[in-house]
Design brief:
Blueprint lengths: L2 E4 L15 E5 L12 E5 L6 E12 L2 E7 L16 E9 L1
Antiparallel strand pairs: 1-2, 2-6, 3-4, 3-6, 4-5
């Protein structure tokens, strides 16, 4: 069930996602649909609204599956581990 997405220009994903970019996203059904390098949107306790960043690490700990993410134009990974239930969508196409 692909969905159309628009983005707020925060510059964190420059140059891949910049002003005027749109995307097609899907809602992942399982963790196996999330891969290193994917761009995901997720809810974070550290920010209001959705964050759209790239998956840089996938792992498991005592609480289960998680991933780490980072904006392409940011120097550091986002804080905390992102759990599957925080992930809203996965970008499958970017349209300029």
């Amino acid at each position: 069930d692909p969905e159309w997405a628009t983005f707020t220009d925060t510059n964190s994903m420059d140059p891949v996602i910049d002003a005027g970019a749109n995307a097609i996203e899907i809602i992942p059904k399982t963790e196996s649909q999330i891969h290193l390098g994917d761009i995901i949107s997720y809810n974070s306790p550290y920010a209001d609204g959705s964050i759209i960043h790239r998956v840089t690490k996938i792992g498991e700990d005592k609480h289960g599956w998680y991933c780490k993410v980072k904006g392409d134009n940011n120097n550091f990974e986002d804080p905390g581990k992102i759990r599957f239930n925080q992930i809203q969508r996965v970008v499958v196409a970017i349209i300029y």
